[in-house]
Structure formats: structure tokens, C-alpha cells
Amino acid sequence: MRIAVIDLGTNTFNLLIADVNDKNIEFIYKAKMPSKLGEEGINNNLIHEDAFARAINIIKEYKKIIDKHHIHKLYAVATSAVRSADNSHAFVSEIAEATGVNVEVISGEKEAQLIYGGVHKTVSEEDSSYLILDIGGGSTEFILVKDNDVKSVKSFDLGMARLIEKFKPSEPITKMEISDIEAFLKLELNDFFEEVKKQNVQTLIGSSGSFDTILSMVAHKFFKPGHFKKKLSSEFDREHFDYLYELMIKSNLKERCEIPGMDLIRVEMMVLAMVFTNLVIKELEIKKLMQSRYALKEGLLFSL
To answer: For the chain, which domains are there?
Structure first.
């Protein structure tokens, strides 16, 4: 059976087409396009009319691709920006009317569960205890796994689009701004951090765009561009992360656009994504850093 999945993320719309049977999944086609649903309203719980138009245009393009691949089923799911918007019903209705695509708005917990469903397929047997971190534009998900048992599934409205709108950081970001953002995040995440510390989990596995970009920049700087491409999950050095962290916080937007391996779709959000990740590493005394190639859209396929 050929299935298409559209992940309507706050920052990016992802398309994945795959052939699915009882024994395996063969990926046929992947695409991503910037949606920026959070611009001009995410913290006011609104999807701006410009974002409406962008979303419909992207779904129309994806629908053309989907029709060419003769799929049997289409699943479209929307996450943080849509589920928190007061005009989410109008948004979903307008997409259905304009494109014929019916979008399901999923909860933060369901989003985290699907992310886990993708990530755990890429983890080796030796990594039985870990914390998954998926940094989005509207929300950020954590999944805590201890001895192959899921201990906690959390979704926080702490996406990078929300933080950018709230703090409006300078270019480059200042030390005071970093301190203010870290203080805010510590307050929001304190209870969860304490929960993780009790489990003594020291491996962090990142998924989705921010960690894909980190790994791409690591490959371009320290290895070769395609160094990690054949691996479903990849370990990278703390020293390499620290180098990129310093590079991000000292750079302005123009400079980041020129960094080899940078995903231009994420260039505005990468500074705060690095600040967020660095805080998690420090607070939880993380020893091992990994990236998973699978996330929500793959998890949705595996759940079928």
C-alpha cells in the first residue's frame, strides 16, 4: 500500500510518501517547504492570513506530487501552531475546501508519541536509556526512555517561533538575552528536569529539523558533507556541538546563511535551538549526543 503523510509543522510542512507492507517500509519521496505558521500571531493564538495563504499553496503543490505517485491513503496532521490557534477550525476547513486534504489536529502528547515511534526505530540495542528532544517551531517534545521503557512523554509550548516572538533576540544575540531565555526555560522545565535527573539518563537523541541541521553543520565542518547520510542514527562529539554553539551565538542572520550545512529554512531559529539544547545538556549533565533521521512523519507511518 502506498501512503502519503503531510506533517503541517509550525515552521515547515513535510511530505513523505512510502510503500508500506506487513514487513517493511520503503520510502519513495520526501520534501519540505517553509510554512512559518507562527509569524505575526503564534503567541496570540492566531494563524495570520498570510500563513493561511502559504499553507494552502504548499498543500496544493504537495497534492500535485501525491497525485503523480498514485497513493492509496493520505494522512495529514497539524501540530502546535494549529492546535493552539483560536482560528484553527477555519484554517483546517479552508485547506479542505481549497485542496481536498483533510487535516487532523493532534495533541502534544500524540505528537510526542509519534516522534518516539519514529526515533526508537533508529536506536541500537546498546542504547536502552535516553532522552529524545524534538525542537519545533510551536512546541518542543521530550520522551524519556529508561531500559527500553517509556517513562515520560511531554510536550511544551516552547517552540522556537514562540521564543523568538516573546524575546525578540538581537543579531547577534547578547549574553543578557541568553541569560533571560535560559532563566525562563529553567522555570518552565524545572519539574521535568528533576524527573529526568532521577532516572540518570545521560544520552540525548535529537530529531527533526534543528538536529538535522546541527548534524549537517558538523559534517561540513569536521568531516565531509555526506558523512552521516547512510546512518539512521548518528553520534556526534560534545566538542563539535560546543564549537557550533559558540558560532551560532556570535553570528548574525547574514553570517549564519553562509555557514556550510546550514538549512536556510531554519536559519532564523537555530540560535535559540542551540541555546535550548545547550541548556538541556548542562542541566541534565548529558554525556552522549545523537541524532535520529526519523521523527513524527516516520512514526506515523510505523504506527499504521
So the answer is: 2-106 (3.30.420.40), 110-299 (3.30.420.150)
Q: Please report the sign of the dihedral spanned by the C-alpha atoms of residue 29, residue 215, residue 132, residue 58.
A: negative
Helix axes 238-249, 209-222, angle to 10 degrees: 100
Predicted structure pTM score: 0.96
Is the distance from CB of 137 to CB of 47 less than 8 angstroms? no
Residue 157 CA: distances (Å) to CA of 181, 202, 246: 14, 24, 26
**pLDDT tens, 216-233?**
999 999 999 999 999 999
User: Which class for 33: exposed (0-12), middle (13-18), buried (19 or more C-beta within 10 A)?
Assistant: middle
Which grid coordinates are listed for 125?
540495542
* Cβ neighbours, 10 Å, residue 106: 21
Can you give the pLDDT at residue 125?
81
Q: Can you tell me the distance from the alpha carbon of 197 to that of 285, in angstroms, rounded to the nearest whole number?
A: 9
**140's grid cell:** 518542543
Least confident of 32-41, 79-88, 270-279, 292-301: 32-41
Q: Is 104 helix (H, G, I), strand (E, B) or coil?
A: strand
Task: Report the distance separating Cα 62 and Cα 31, nearest Å.
Answer: 9
3-state secondary structure 177-224: HHHHHHHHHHHHHHHHHHHHHHHCCCEEEEECHHHHHHHHHHHHHHCC
pLDDT at 248: 98
Rounded mean pLDDT of the chain?
Answer: 96
The vertex-208 CA angle with 207 and 210, nearest 5°, equals: 95
